[in-house]
Amino acid sequence: MQIIVKGKNLEVTDALRDYATEKVGRVEKYLDRIIKTEIELSVEKNPKIQENQVVEVTIFFSGPVIRAKESASDMYQAIDLVCAKLERQARKVKRKIIDRHHHARNPFKEAAVSAEEEGEEREPVIVKTKSFPLKPMTPEEACLQMELVGHDFFVFINSETEETNVVYRRRDGNYGLIEPGG
């Protein structure tokens, strides 16, 4: 397996490279035929962000691309967090592949779950649905409404384009706007 470790706004030491490579390498037991793994270690320069040590890992293998990103105040802690997330994602992908193959042979039996995976959390499901009328407003007004209701995002009709848009709060404290593309 080819592992590429890159640094952004920091110099990657041998100790950091070895630690990241060893931790991410543990995911290999869950995935077949890993082609390449990219690890990007970066430091956010924004002084408002306390958890400024960021690790992003992308794994290319014979199945879907797996990507995880985590941040912490310590780079080693961020590596541990991202590896835990990667392991959960890899187990989920492996379970889906096993289920797909198992159900293809015998659709009436449930796939056996190993003892290691029994305590694992299951896929999230939709547990609540909300309906509310969308009101026409500007993105700035939507940001104000989002702040007033205390949410991290807000859905609205953009009065300038008459399309459904979403504003959201970014990690850096600013806002983002999602518009439908065409």
Output the keywords.
four-stranded mixed sheet, 182 residues, SHC Adaptor Protein, alpha/beta, Double Stranded RNA Binding Domain, 4 helices, 2 domains
Main beta sheet strand tally, sense and closure: 4 strands, mixed
Query: How much is the average pLDDT?
Result: 83
Report the uncertain regions. Answer: 106-118
Oligomer: single chain
Portion of residues in beta strands equals: 25-35%
Rg calc:
21 Å
User: What characteristic shape results from the CA principal axes?
Assistant: globular
Strand order of the largest sheet: 1-2-3-4
Structural class: alpha/beta
Corresponding CATH architecture of the largest domain: 2-Layer Sandwich
Q: At the third CATH level, what is the topology name of the largest domain?
A: Double Stranded RNA Binding Domain
Your description of this structure?
With 182 residues, the chain is of the alpha/beta class. It has two domains: 2-118, Ribosome hibernation promotion factor-like (Double Stranded RNA Binding Domain, 2-Layer Sandwich); 136-178, 2-Layer Sandwich (SHC Adaptor Protein). It is built from four helices and eight strands. The chain has helices at 14-25, 75-105, 115-118, 139-149, and strands spanning 2-8, 34-43, 53-61, 66-72, 136-137, 153-158, 164-169, 175-178. Strands 1-2-3-4 form a four-stranded mixed β-sheet, with helices on one face. It is globular.
Write the layout of secondary structure elements.
Blueprint: E1 2-8, H1 14-25, E2 34-43, E3 53-61, E4 66-72, H2 75-105, H3 115-118, E5 136-137, H4 139-149, E6 153-158, E7 164-169, E8 175-178
Parallel strand pairs: 1-2, 5-6
Antiparallel strand pairs: 2-3, 3-4, 6-7, 7-8
Helix pairs in contact: 1-2
